[in-house]
Write a structure and sequence with these properties.
The protein is an alpha+beta fold and 159 residues long. It has 4 helices and 5 strands. It folds into 2 domains: 2-69, Transcription elongation factor, GreA/GreB, N-terminal domain (Helix Hairpins); 73-155, Roll (Chitinase A, domain 3). Helix 1 packs antiparallel against helix 2.
Length: 159
């Protein structure tokens, strides 16, 4: 999981760096040729895009740094945490859900991922298999039972 996230970040950084160093200078040069820069929408648009890309690359670089600090061996092997695949039962609705807990930046709902910062994600952090957790959701309080848990250390064969 960590390798997939790092790969996605690296790909996005490469794409943005190419746009910043190749495509945007060409757009800016073309806009400069059009004349008066004070009223040149193409020029202003290119500069705004340049600022956005620089900020995004900085954010992604920070995320890469944070990911490199994650020590999977130090993560608890029996509690819900980053990368855990969790199956829960909504005790009121008798509905079962399975998902993987990820950081919000890397969330893919179609792939069955839930952010650790979401109400369900943060409510389940630290829970053990078999435990019940009450979570405050926008539609009210819900109680979930952790029916299945495969932590990131277990997925990587470290336990």
């Amino acid at each position: 999981m960590l390798d997939e996230i790092k790969e996605r970040l690296e790909t996005e950084i490469e794409t943005l760096t190419h746009e910043l160093n190749v495509e945007l200078p060409e757009r800016i040069a073309t806009a400069v040729e059009l004349g008066d820069l004070r009223e040149n929408a193409e020029y202003k648009s290119a500069l705004e895009r340049q600022q956005f890309i620089q900020a995004r690359i900085g954010h992604l670089a920070k995320r890469m740094s944070e990911l490199s600090k994650i020590d999977v061996k130090a993560m608890p092997a029996d509690r819900v945490g980053f990368g855990s695949k969790v199956t829960i039962l909504d005790t009121e609705l008798d509905e079962e859900m399975t998902f993987t807990l990820v950081a919000g930046d890397f969330m893919d709902l179609d792939a069955g991922q839930v952010s650790m910062a979401s109400p369900i994600g943060s409510g389940l952090l630290g829970a053990k298999e078999g435990s019940e957790v009450t979570v405050q959701l926008p539609r009210g309080e819900r109680t979930f039972r952790v029916k299945g848990l495969v932590t990131l250390p277990q997925q990587l064969g470290l336990t």
